[in-house]
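User: Hello! I'm new to structural biology and keep hearing that structure can be predicted from sequence alone. Could you demonstrate with Acyl carrier protein? Please show me the input and the output so I can see what each looks like.

Assistant: Of course. The first part below is the input, the amino acid sequence of Acyl carrier protein. The second part is the output, the predicted structure written as tokens.
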Amino acid sequence: MVDTTDTDAQIETIIADRLRVDPDSFDDSTAFEGETLNVESLDIVEVAEAIEAELGVHIPDEDLADLERVGDLKEYVRERI
């Protein structure tokens, strides 16, 4: 069984690194396309590629488009680990 706390922390680190934001500036309710993260399509693809490389979870583009918030992404990954 994978520790969800560790998985969530890894996802938060990936988001912070790829989007060049402070990890304390967002939480599960933060929208990717909102003021805080202001994610462009290439940015979210980089996040997805890093998740696949580090956690082994592939996120198809059609699924990626449906993940609107940080918490949605965490839940998606946790369900597939």
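User: So the tokens describe the shape?

Assistant: Right, they're a compact way of writing down the 3D structure. Reading them back into a model, for example: The helical segments are 4-19, 41-55, 61-64, 70-80.
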